[in-house]
């Protein structure tokens, strides 16, 4: 079987259809901008799951007519207008009913309380801890003991409430070089942070089980003050 690069890159593309693709793309791009403006959003920050689904729907409806000769633009516009009307209806219902809004958007989730991670069902974490530690580093947080409360909002943003300098307690380090020194073997007496739930314990033995999550991996806790 002969391999044909022409089929890979051009297939049955003609100059006339190439020009048509440019025109279709320009028209659909303008329509998408108009439809998005009609949603009422002023811009894009973090999107909720529902809004991501709407954007995916717009993209699917707008993308195919740009390069598919058999698909007309008007049916795609009908799809996008339908999605827009559905979006406006659902957001109106969400504004009228808090329970419906909670089902649609979800609820804010407490991640840190009193300098330690909140555990789901007292046994498991329900978020990507590595990503969350990266978020803390971006907020100039060196260890979890500097944070009184952290809340994961429905938009994906994290709201942080800090301890004052005098109330800062020892905490789980967020810096990779320090955090990656974690081990089940305790190398010296001192304050250690559980790498799973951030519980702080003063440990003297060579091994120790966390009283909160029953894990045995620890890293040396630090108690530096927060730099604003």
From TrEMBL:
Gene3D superfamilies: bsu07140 like domains (3.30.240.20). The chain crosses the membrane at residues 15-36, 48-67, 73-95. It comes from the Bacteria. It is a multi-pass membrane protein. The keyword Signal does not apply. It is found in: Cell membrane. Keywords: Cell membrane, Membrane, Transmembrane, Transmembrane helix. One of its GO terms (cellular component) is plasma membrane. Residues 96-169 form the YetF C-terminal domain. The keyword Transmembrane helix applies. Its main location: membrane. Belongs to the UPF0702 family. This is DUF421 domain-containing protein. It comes from Mucilaginibacter pallidiroseus. The lineage of its organism: Bacteria, Pseudomonadati, Bacteroidota, Sphingobacteriia, Sphingobacteriales.
